[in-house]
Design a protein that fits this description.
alpha/beta; 5-stranded mixed beta sheet; 120 residues; 5 helices; 5 strands; globular
């Protein structure tokens, strides 16, 4: 679903659908937005399997890089606190991502709105 939030066009990816893991999955996700005008992809964390958040697999880095390479911002929507508690490396990824503009982890749409209002 395409939505405009704080003058930013976002695509709210449905929670149900195939797992997103690979760089090709990222490309397919981007392709699905073709012509929509969306610049931000908001993906529920439920779309990613647990292994995605394991920093040793490097899946998360490849996926993020592909989305950013195509000029989109990525928002992972939902609770990742269990993964943060289990991995110092993942906690660092979340912290550093949320400091930047390209990838954010937010718990809900209210938090996304706050961030978009502050940074656009």
């Amino acid at each position: 679903m395409i939505d405009v939030r704080h003058d930013v066009t976002v695509w709210l990816v449905p929670a149900d659908g195939p797992e997103l893991v690979t760089e090709q999955d990222a490309v397919d996700l981007i392709g699905a937005t073709f012509g929509s005008g969306a610049s931000v992809l908001v993906v529920p964390v439920e779309r990613f399997p647990g292994r995605f958040f394991d920093m040793h697999t490097k899946l998360i880095g490849h996926f993020f890089s592909k989305v950013v390479q195509y000029g989109f911002r990525l928002v992972l929507l939902g609770d990742v606190s269990g993964y943060v508690a289990a991995s110092t490396a993942f906690r660092d990824v979340v912290r550093e991502s949320n400091r930047g503009q390209d990838v954010w982890f937010v718990t809900d749409l209210g938090e996304l709105d706050t961030r978009l209002a502050a940074r656009g």
